[in-house]
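Thread: quick sanity check before group meeting

JM: Hey all, I'm pulling together slides for Thursday and realized we never actually wrote out the predicted structure for the chain we discussed last week. Dropping the sequence here so it's in one place. If anyone has concerns about the input, flag it before I start.
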Amino acid sequence: MAGTFVGFGFGAIQGGLFLPEAFRSGNFDRLVVSEIDQETVGHLRASGGVYSCNVAHQSSLERIEVSGIEAYNPLVGDDRDKLVEAVAEASELCTALPSFKLYDSGPASVASLLGEGLSLKFNRSGLPCAVVYAAENDSRAASRLLEACLSYRPAGFDSRVCFSETVIAKMCSVVDDAARIRDEGLLPVTNGLPKAFLVEAFDRILIESKTPPGFQRGLDRFVPKDDLDPFAQTKFLGHNAIHAMLGYLAKSRGIDFMHEAGEDSVLIERTKETFLAEAGVGLRKEYANQTDVLFTEHGFEAYAEDALVRMVNPFLRDPVDRVTRDPARKLGWDDRMLGAMKLARRAGVEPKGLAEGARIALRYAREEQGWGSEANALDHLWAEVPAAQQAPFREWLLSS
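JM (edit): ok, ran it. Output follows.
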């Protein structure tokens, strides 16, 4: 099997997960990446299409090399034309942008490139069917991407192209601190480019099982699921919510790195208890009709224990400030912390542990935004939420 893989955005998810997986598989003879930062494109070309990635295992740091990368800048005319041709011949593609809001933004619109390139599959013979993976951190990313692409191809994509949601619980980061790169022995992406990809070894990535008829995946280690939503919600309201909670508890104690939080056995035990008895109970009740072992008591306990170990991986050296950034967003009514609290309450559980983390986040959000009191901060954060719905959660967050 030989094919073309095209990635949009050259950040930690693309450079630390999708491109390495495509390279490792040996199932693609072209690895193409679209990136609007010309400095990065220039360095990739100067390196001959070779870059490095650092992989954090629990007991060691592995340094891997990925080669054969073709990098193009969609803001450059000739490069854009080459990207459209690559999209046309690609069998698997992945968008890994900072936000789904960038799908159809500016002159380098990913949706316009996809719409134009994928349309060629219907106009030329011999071009393969394709799956487009949306790797942005949103449970409806693929649906949003398809909607954006339909504005450039209203006729749709029939059964020749599928847009796939993903659940990526792999922790990935871009380290741009020269001192950290030096002190931790990280390999930069390329020589002369002052940043490094640092990702955990975890690779159980979930994708939608739907594909075009007769399609054979080149990315062969991902796990397909018929219904991805329960797993996406478990990642968001389980893993992400507890990760944030642990980060805020660590920050309030003056802890700088997540692995240092892992050395506090009392803190970890409290976090595990909250994971199982609050977030876990809420999620298992919400998805009690699912047959997957994850939604059993023992299955969820194994999931939680594994996630906690990974959160405090010493070779990730994950800064607490990174985990706790943007507390106002994390306290959104439909975001991770409140979402987990709402599920717990619906299951008949008082979310005491989650509320403790949320109270700390609220304090930092208030200070960052200059909102005055915590009560005033909640007025801003939940302005559109009816008072009756807010009431129990305000009480939990405003209690000392």
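AS: nice. The two ends are 61 Å apart (CA to CA). The chain has a mean pLDDT of 96.
JM: adding both to the slides.
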